[in-house]
Amino acid sequence: MPGHRSITEAEKLAAAKLGGVAIRREQMAAVANIYRAASAVRQHLENSVLRGSDLTWTAFVVLWVVWVWGEPETRHVAEEAGISKGTLTGVVRTLESRGLLRRDGHPSDGRLVLLRLTPEGEEFMARVFPAFNEEEAFVTAGLSDAECRRLAEGLRSVVLQVEEHGEERRQSLLGGAEPAPRRSGRRPRA
């Protein structure tokens, strides 16, 4: 692939670029490799086990969350999947059209929507998740079980740090101001 650089090349280029800049290099490497690992794993799983099912990573994560939680509210599914409610709406429509998921109104609050797997969705997850897990084993094959546990614990600590202290840190960095709305990267029309 033109322009593709290995992780080793990228690390060497970053070190050369940053030269004498006073930064926390180990922390930079940790965060950069979290991103690289997540991207590599996601791409591998989408191009292997999920390709045959014609599902994206996000669609599979939504199915997983609903499968594990049973009948969660849409807002909780979006939060657990790490996506916006708008993105969830499109994913749910796709999964509904494939007969894997259905929406139900909340029994006591008509404003809320619950998601549930259909029998076909339950069968799909029971069939596909073992293959997905085989690929999880493949991508971690270079680690022992103990190393996988330590990695999982370390990453859990990163998540907990952000969950428990991230909002306070954001407020501090922004001087108490609300963050600017996210932008798509497109410039506003004239």
Automatic annotation (TrEMBL):
Residues 167-190 are annotated as: Disordered. SMART domains: HTH_MARR (SM00347). The keyword Transcription regulation applies. Residues 27-164 form the HTH marR-type domain. GO terms for molecular function: DNA binding; DNA-binding transcription factor activity. PROSITE patterns: HTH_MARR_1, HTH_MARR_2. InterPro entries: HTH_MarR-typ, MarR/SlyA-like, Tscrpt_reg_MarR-type_CS, WH-like_DNA-bd_sf, WH_DNA-bd_sf. Keywords: DNA-binding, Transcription, Transcription regulation. This is MarR family transcriptional regulator. It comes from Streptomyces cahuitamycinicus.
